[in-house]
Amino acid sequence: MTDNMAAIARATVGDLAEIIPVTATRGFPYIASRAEAQIAGGIVLEMIAEHASTVDAVVIAAFGDPSLKGARDLFDLPIVGMAEAAVMTAALLGESFAVVTFSPLMTRWYDECVQATGLGNRFKGVLTPDITPARLTDVQTDLGADIITMATTAATRHHADVIILGGAPLAGLAPKIASQVPAIVIDPIAAAVLQAMTLVRMTAHAATPLRVNKPAAKTSIGLAAPLAMAIHHGGAAS
Questions:
Q1: What is the rounded distance in angstroms from the CA atom of residue 122 to the CA atom of residue 232?
Q2: pLDDT surpassing 70 at residue 230
Q3: What is the pLDDT of residue 150?
Q4: Does the fold of domain 89-188 match that of domain 2-82+192-237?
Q5: Which of 26-35, 52-61, 92-101 has the lowest mean pLDDT?
C-alpha cells in the first residue's frame, strides 16, 4: 500500500516536490479502532522524529491520522493528516460530504475522525459494504462496482456534494471512477500532499520554533533515540 500511495503522491506533485515514502515496521495493515490508533500513534511519532530534520513536511498516510495533533505539538514543520486533509478539501469543494470505504469496521472510527475536524454538521455519514473483504490488496478490483454504487447513493440519497474514498486500500481509485459518480470524488493522499506543499510555502517565514504552546522539555525512558531527543528538547526543529 505504501508503494501505491507514494506513486499517487508523486503523480500528484510532479516535479514540484520529492516524495520520500516511509513504512512502519510494526503495527497493523490498517487502523480501524481507537486502540489501534493509539498504538500506531506512538510509532508515527518515532518515524517523524527520525526524519523531521531532513524533510519540509510530513503526511501521515493513514486515514484517521494517528498522533496528528501530538505531532504538530512536538515538531516544527507542517504535518498533514490524510483524513483531515480530505475532509477540509471536501468542505471547500461542496456544502456536504460523505465517506465511502471498504469495511463496516471503519464506520465508527471514521465518524469520530470527521467529528474531530469540527465539520460534523456537514457530514452525511460513512457508507460501507456489508462485510470486510478478505484481501486488502484486491479491494479496488473486488469492490470497484460496489464503491461506485455507494458513492452514487451518498450523492443521490444522502445529498453529499463530495465523496471521500476512505482508507489506504482505495488510494488511486478516485480518478478512475470520478466520471461514474454524480459528485466530486476525493483521493485523500492527493489532497494531503497538495495541502502539505501549500503549508510549506505559507510557513516559510513563520517563527514556528518560538511557539508558546510547545510541550515542555522532559526526560524519558526506553523511547527511540530521535523521539526521546525531540521530547527532551521540548519539540524538534525542522
A1: 40
A2: yes
A3: 97
A4: yes
A5: 26-35
Q: What is the pLDDT of residues 49-83, one digit of tens each?
A: 999 999 999 999 998 899 999 999 999 999 999 99
Q: How far apart are CA 209 and CA 180, in angstroms?
A: 46
Cell representation of residue 201 = 510555502
- Write down the pTM of the prediction: 0.91
Q: Which three cell numbers stand for residue 192?
A: 494531503
How many Å apart are CA 62 and CA 77, to the nearest integer?
Answer: 19
State the maximum Cα–Cα separation within the chain, in Å, rounded to a whole number.
54
CA–CA dist 80, 75 (Å, integer): 12
Q: What's the rounded Cα separation, in Å, for the pair 96 and 170?
A: 21
Q: Answer whether CATH 3.40.50.1860 is correct for domain 2-82+192-237.
A: yes
One-letter amino acid for residue 130 of the chain:
D
